[in-house]
Amino acid sequence: MTSSSYLWTPPEPAAVAVQGHAARFPVQRLFFVGRNYRAHAAEMGRPVDPRRDRPFYFTKSPTALLASGSGAPYPQSTSNYQHEMELVVALGAGGSEVAVEQAPSLIYGYACGLDMTRRDLQLAARDQGKPWDTAKDCEDSAVISPIVPMPGRVLERGRIELRLDGKTRQDSDLSQMIWGVRELIADLSTLYHLRAGDLIYTGTPEGVGAVLAGQLIEGSIEGVGEIRLQLEAR
Ligand code: MN
Fold this sequence. Notes:
The chain is about 10% helix and about 35% strand. It contains 4 helices and 18 strands. Strand 13 and strand 14 form a beta hairpin. It has one domain: Alpha-Beta Complex (Fumarylacetoacetate hydrolase, domain 2), CATH 3.90.850. It starts with 14 loop residues before the first strand and ends with a strand. The structure holds manganese (II) ion (MN).
């Protein structure tokens, strides 16, 4: 037996479509930033003061990825499944202890993302000081649009919005992020050796809310693209 044989066929690596390319972006890890827009932090009852607070993160398994345009069943063990529209940074190079000025050199491109959340589980966990894993890292909960290559470019502004069955629910601007793309890459690189293939979901603006089976989520980010998720009956 060689080291390249397996008991069964391993799954294909997680990957995301890239606009204008036949080849796909191979995914390493999924990082998510918590409370990166003031108005969202306030609506969650946990206001952020960047003079005192640092960004914080959670992760999802790459198996939580779902391509934009797909349908997904309403998940198990929740009655409060919520949408969070986010800008996703796709890294094309790695680094550790990356200086803010060097952070753009890690950027491959950007995508639209949905950080779908079992909010009832999250609030219960939060209030009991327990981890968020089962609230956040649920199947099909990391929705992503095709990555738009923009190597080295820092997005600092642009409308970010989400519609539920055609009605606007989230409508903000990337300029409202507390910590920008450069700062997030630099800060995260003090915690992890970042690698090509890592994705960073940069946090959601205010207006998060519940979705129901049968509803259609559509989001967009100026200069990046659009994202779509159809919730289906379980
Ligand atoms: Mn989020």
